[in-house]
Amino acid sequence: MQKTFAMIKPDAVSAGYHHNILQELELGGFAIVSKARVQLTRARAAEFYAEHKGKHFYEKLVDFMSSGPVIALVLAKEEAITGWRTLMGPTNSVVAKEQKPDSLRGKYGTDGTYNACHGADSPASAAREIKFFFPRLILD
Ligand code: ATP
Ligand code: MG
């Protein structure tokens, strides 16, 4: 079974949508391997999204991701990485609302930055991100 790293972002947690998202992901067949509520510092958020350093949205993204608690998740399912990104929908929630209104970002996000959730985009990213949040977790 493949594992992926997922996160419910501060906008969704502060709105109370994490309850809905957790329910939907379990209905979608994802098993929750690990779950933690975490407050990222600005430095930790900057490190997590280091691949985007220098992009026009980076500072706003780092501010957003350190603005309140997130829920960090390790999820397991066959093809979990692509499956979770499909459940989330397009990155920009405005696009998601138009094209995939039933997706998590369509339902619970707001715009290009405040988009409710995150998912690792490759096996290498999943491994890095799981280690970032759950350094003691033993991955088979
Ligand atoms: P994530 O990595 O959060 O799962 P993603 O892989 O779909 O999202 P990335 O390109 O990795 O998208 O962007 C990381 C995050 O940066 C996005 O989820 C969003 O919050 C923000 N972001 C990306 N592109 C933009 C943009 N053009 N304008 C504003 N914010 C953006
Ligand atoms: Mg990404």
CATH level 1 class label: Alpha Beta
How many beta-strand segments?
4
User: How many helices does DSSP assign?
Assistant: 8
Q: What oligomeric state is this?
A: single chain
End-to-end span in angstroms? 10 Å
Q: Give unreliable regions as ranges.
A: none
Q: How would a textbook summarize the main sheet?
A: 4 strands, antiparallel
Tell me the strand percentage band.
15-25%
CATH topology: Alpha-Beta Plaits
> What Rg is obtained from the alpha carbons, in whole angstroms?
14 Å
Looking at CATH, the homologous superfamily is Nucleoside diphosphate kinase-like domain
* Average pLDDT for all residues: 97
Strand order of the largest sheet: 2-3-1-4
Secondary structure category: alpha+beta
The H/E string reads EHHEHHEHHHEH
Bound compounds, please? adenosine-5'-triphosphate, magnesium ion
Give the second-level CATH assignment, the architecture.
Answer: 2-Layer Sandwich
Shape: globular
Which percent bin holds the helix content?
Answer: 40-55%
Number of domains: 1
In short:
The protein is an alpha+beta fold.
Helix-strand blueprint:
Blueprint (H helix, E strand, L loop, with lengths): L1 E7 L1 H5 L3 H10 L3 E8 L3 H7 L9 H8 L4 E8 L2 H9 L4 H7 L4 H5 L8 E3 L3 H11 L7
Antiparallel strand pairs: 1-3, 1-4, 2-3
This protein binds adenosine-5'-triphosphate and magnesium ion (MG).
